[in-house]
Amino acid sequence: MTRSPLPPVIRIATALIFNPEGETLLVRKEGSHIFMQAGGKIDAQETAVHALIRELYEELGLALSMEEAEYLGSFSAEAAHEPGHLIQADVFRVLVSTPVSAQAEIEELLWVSPLEAPTDCLAPLTRDILMPLAVKLLQGGCARL
Ligand SMILES: Nc1nc2c([nH]c(=O)n2[C@H]2C[C@H](O)[C@@H](COP(=O)(O)OP(=O)(O)OP(=O)(O)O)O2)c(=O)[nH]1
């Protein structure tokens, strides 16, 4: 019996970003119709939190300190943009009270209530893991400033 090879894994850092209204931020990258959390690949020699800080600055112009990123855990899902790949995502919670704007390769930003988010245009990690987690955090009263 032959075993099928394990799919390649991409390590990313991403965040459930909340505003004071309890909405969470989704982004759509250039050339994609799928919404997901801001963030991106973790470079070699980089820690997850440093990758997050770099990516949120590049994508949203957000200047974040390490203390402002609370680690929530590591989660796996099918990669949205790379067929046949899995992502292993280090996920943080970030609360923002200043405006953010789409930079670099981000085409659209969307603030959504986790309870009312659309499900048909979300990346697998976002749809199956992070939006349900956002609902739990909100219901626990932990997502507000
Ligand atoms: N940022 C982010 N990426 C996600 C999520 N869900 C998901 O499948 N991905 C996938 C999309 C891509 O296949 C991969 C992230 O790659 P990327 O190309 O956006 O990362 P990057 O900004 O570092 O870009 P690059 O170095 O390839 O130019 O992870 C998510 O919620 N957030």
From TrEMBL:
DNA repair listed as a keyword: yes
Keywords per UniProt: DNA damage, DNA repair, DNA replication, Hydrolase, Magnesium, Metal-binding, Mutator protein
Gene3D superfamilies (alphabetical): Nucleoside Triphosphate Pyrophosphohydrolase
Protein name as annotated: 8-oxo-dGTP diphosphatase
Listed EC numbers: 3.6.1.55
Record organism: Acetobacter farinalis
Enzymatic class: hydrolase
Coiled-coil ranges per UniProt: none
